[in-house]
Inverse folding.
């Protein structure tokens, strides 16, 4: 089993986000975008990214959604996160045990995750999903330009 992007690893990242955002309650779409910002913070004008700037990283958002759902399931079963209905749908928040669990994570990578989670939550605090999407679309548009290859002419002119 590959621990990278497993439900446990993704769950830890999501828990960092939920703890940084507490007492705010976030929906799945917000968590997907914020998790992306946590990993690729340099793309958004933040601290150095934790993951390398690979091409077409925006396409990872769809895969990330499934991983975050699995991570949330682990967190809820471990009583580290909570879920509830709101007028806007299902929302998630850090449980009472979240701070204690995060305090047990004693590694450079865990500290970096926590720093990025605090940064991304602080940067986008109070933004609804639509506003978050607009902010992230700006970053995504420059990724497309970074990896754009000029069209090849079929008329022999270049």
């Amino acid at each position: 089993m590959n621990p990278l992007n497993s439900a446990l690893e993704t769950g830890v990242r999501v828990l960092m986000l939920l703890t940084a955002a507490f007492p705010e309650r976030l929906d799945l779409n917000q968590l997907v975008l914020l998790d992306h910002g946590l990993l690729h913070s340099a793309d958004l004008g933040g601290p150095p990214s934790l993951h390398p700037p690979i091409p077409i990283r925006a396409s990872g958002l769809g895969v990330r959604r499934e991983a975050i759902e699995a991570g949330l399931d682990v967190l809820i079963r471990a009583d580290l996160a909570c879920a509830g209905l709101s007028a806007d749908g299902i929302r998630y928040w850090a449980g009472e045990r979240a701070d204690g669990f995060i305090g047990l994570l004693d590694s450079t990578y865990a500290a970096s995750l926590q720093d990025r989670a605090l940064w991304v939550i602080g940067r986008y605090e109070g933004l609804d999903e639509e506003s978050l999407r607009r902010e992230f679309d700006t970053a995504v548009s420059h990724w497309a330009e970074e990896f754009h290859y000029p069209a090849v002419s079929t008329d022999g002119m270049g």
Summary: Residues 7-146 form one domain. The longest strand covers residues 81-86.
